[in-house]
Amino acid sequence: MTAFYWTIFLLAALCRKTGGQFLDLKNITARDAFLSGTLPDGFLWGTATAAFQIEGGWDSGEKGPSIWDWYSHLPQNVPWGDVATDSYHKYKEDVQMHVNTSLNSYRFSISWPRLFPDGTNTTINQYGVDYYNNLINELQNNGIEPLVTLYHWDLPQKLKERYGGWVNDTLVEMFENYARFCFTTFGDRVKYWTTFNEPWSFVAALGDFNNDPDYTMKYKMAHNVIRAHARAWHTYDDDFRSAQNGSVGIVISSIWGEPADLHNPADRQAATNYMEFFFGWFANPIIGNGDYPDVMKRMVRESRLKQNQTVSPLPEFTEEEKVYNNGTTDFLGINTYTARIISATNETQTCHPDNHNFASACGYMPDLMGVKETIGPGWFYMGSNIFWFAPWNIRGILHFVRERYGYTKPFYLSEVGIGETYKYHSPPNLNDTWRMCFYLTYANEALKAVKLDGVDLRGFYAWTLMDNVEWGSGPDLAFGLYHTNFTHPSRKRTPKRSQGLYGSIARENGFPDNANHVWMTRQWWEWCHMDEAYAPTRHGYVEPTNNVRPTQPAPCPSVSTAPAAQSLMFTGILGILAALVAFCSP
Ligand code: BGC
């Protein structure tokens, strides 16, 4: 019987249609079908955090301030980062929270100014070195693999004051020194490094807090960040790899720009251009040909000429630099939360929440022309106007990167998460069914990327461990598997219901038929694809007084109530139907 099912499955797989670099996910029934199965052995399941968002202890020991400490201490802001979730003191608890969630990995970032208070290696803060040594040792003692980010946006404030930040190419060497120090000090135990977290976000969206509507500084910043990344990778490759045997990657954020009409060449081109600006800006020099995407170079030039600027603000790499940049990653971390539908347009786009702009028309990619961003029906609003429910985004982006760049090295989903805006409600609602739905659907798409699309995906990191400081907006958007009480001096953490579910997915390495949460997933699946499942994430949502919404599916029965044979049969038939629909739909 099993052989019969497999034959049909394999035949179905042959009917698969793709749109080249754009995976054809237009058939919604097929796209949203549940898939059972497990991720490859050794798959890393973890959470991701960032130093500024959790550590606190902002001036403890001899730590120097970062640009975020500077920003959060401006009179109009609240310095939430001073204590954050107090992980500087509670790192052991952070590790135990991973243990209790059955996770085998933890992605955290090192704070550059905690190690080098003024950004340079002239003074080293031994308290900072001790802190990260303790954290790494604690992880190791608990069998948890660290994946360490060197730069999650907290530039030493002194480097900003002295050099203007990333706009100055002196920072390339400073970063190399800092990376070298980290490899030397922690590399005996850390085997997975990423240089930068989401360069697009801290360059395009933040820009080191510079006022640069013209983007002249931002293009320079990006240029130096790419050079710094390449420098750090080569440093590891030349001086550490043979002794430490680890790998160095970069985390690039992107959402999947899905062409509105896959058969319309103009929409496909618009979606390609969108991806080239958003993702390719940083990826093309590293996994493409060492240089910026051609389309980006052309569009920046053309758009500036229209403004009578004869010199393009996009810097140029020398031929030597292109060779040096190319291939400087051992793996790619992809942070992805959502998607957009992209169509070609001749009309000028305006930036407005109703227009669903993420990356275009709001000044973030000012030289990208002819692109309109929208969302589709069934894309539900999740906590913030930029995040819309679109789990298939995972398949779309991984497939795109592989096909567009001929990329064959491993991927890690380095951040995937959902936030809600009502965290100050008291008592907190720990029954976060929307987050359970989110992880069921998004993790299932990760499984599909591996099983259906053959992507070499090796890890999944939930954003985030506990509710933390969401950068400029403080702790008002809560992404945690654990609730953090920000009014409590010791930042008490309490598991939410999603923590148990995510732990179960991790423990079972996905969705094997006999897992308890798979039985539950089948019951919840339809509801998890409905708008009301995500309603509680929204601002202004009023919690029902009895805390239970009537349409919410019943809690999962224990697996033992489902007769094994019947369950297997059900799964087999459902799997075949899902596979047939998924692969053979027009
Ligand atoms: C960043 C995180 C941030 C999250 C949610 C990601 O882009 O890496 O630091 O908290 O988005 O906004």
UniProtKB/TrEMBL annotation:
Q: One GO molecular function term?
A: hydrolase activity, hydrolyzing O-glycosyl compounds
Signal peptide range equals 1-20
Pfam families to which the protein is assigned, alphabetical: Glyco_hydro_1
Entry annotated with the keyword S-adenosyl-L-methionine: no
Name the InterPro entries for this protein: GH, GH_1_N_CS, Glyco_hydro_1
Q: What is the primary gene name for this protein?
A: LOC118414111
Does this entry carry the keyword Hydrolase? yes
The protein depicted here goes by the name Lactase-phlorizin hydrolase-like isoform X1
